[in-house]
Amino acid sequence: MAAMARRVVFFTGAGISKESGIPTYRGAGGTWGEYDYRAVACQRAFERDPEGVWTFHRARRAMVAACPPNAAHHAIARFARAHPTVVITQNIDGLHEAAGTPDAIELHGSLWRLRCEACGQARANRDVPLADTRCDCDCGDPTPRHWRPDITWFEDPMDMTRLARAQQAADDADVLVSVGTSGAVYPAAEIPVRAKQRGAYLVEINPETTPISTICDEVLRGPATRSVPEWIARFETIG
Ligand code: NAD
Question: How far apart are CA 84 and CA 214, in angstroms?
């Protein structure tokens, strides 16, 4: 397999950022065990109480800003600069970009971007925490609005442009490495399966079993900071 391989896709989830200090979604200490998404992370909550939703997201910004990219993010960034690579992430933390990965596909958006609800225009913003959330975009909508975090919240539709790019990358992949994702969030979870169906060599890096484990060609049951650099070193040595 690997000697022929050229196009590598890394598909990452919350587990890759856990060792940076960011809680995963599920399991002990998981974000949504602690908070009710209906109050802080859905469009209905935002329409009801934009300040309350922003208070939650300001706190998330402050928490994530204190968490640097780890050895797994850095190893992927170095690899992506040297080989034809696409990085697809379900994470909103911006750590692939912070590690230097050019142009990661952020399937579920970013904590570091704002979006106008009226026109959909998005803007990068790294203020920690963001003091003023009043929308000042130039779309001319007369309704006073708050910027919305450019994140795919619960109950939101997927961004179809990002999803289509990710699907294309899966279709074109020779190897797909799935790192730190439980495979429970759809349609993102279909990406590794789609790559495998199109003939890619499928690798899983996760301390725990997931729904795709049984279809993988190779499984590394270690933490991302150890197993990602290990897999990359082996791939670069023996192809
Ligand atoms: P998940 O929380 O459902 O699953 C996390 C996975 O990571 C589990 O399979 C777990 O076994 C694995 N894991 C735990 N520690 C690990 C480690 N050290 N190395 C490698 N893997 C490890 O996460 P998900 O599948 O990404 O789905 C959650 C959704 O919530 C995603 O859509 C994501 O956008 C969002 N989310 C994002 C962040 C973030 O941006 N960092 C954090 C939490 C949730």
Answer: 27
8-state DSSP, 211: T
pLDDT tens digits, 172-229: 999 999 999 999 889 999 999 999 999 999 999 999 999 999 999 999 999 999 999 9
CA 203 to ligand 1 center in whole angstroms: 17
Question: d(Cα 64, Cα 98) in Å, to the nearest integer?
Answer: 11
Residues with a catalytic annotation lie at 108
| Protein residue closest via CA to atom 13 of ligand 1 | 15
| Mean of pLDDT values over 7-36 | 84
Closest CA to 144 of 182, 117, 109: 117
Ligand 1 centroid to 13 CA: how many Å? Answer: 4
3-state secondary structure (DSSP) of residue 36: coil
Q: Give Cβ neighbours of residue 77 (< 8 Å, ≥ 6 apart).
A: 69, 96, 99, 100, 101
Closest CA to ligand 1's atom 30: 25
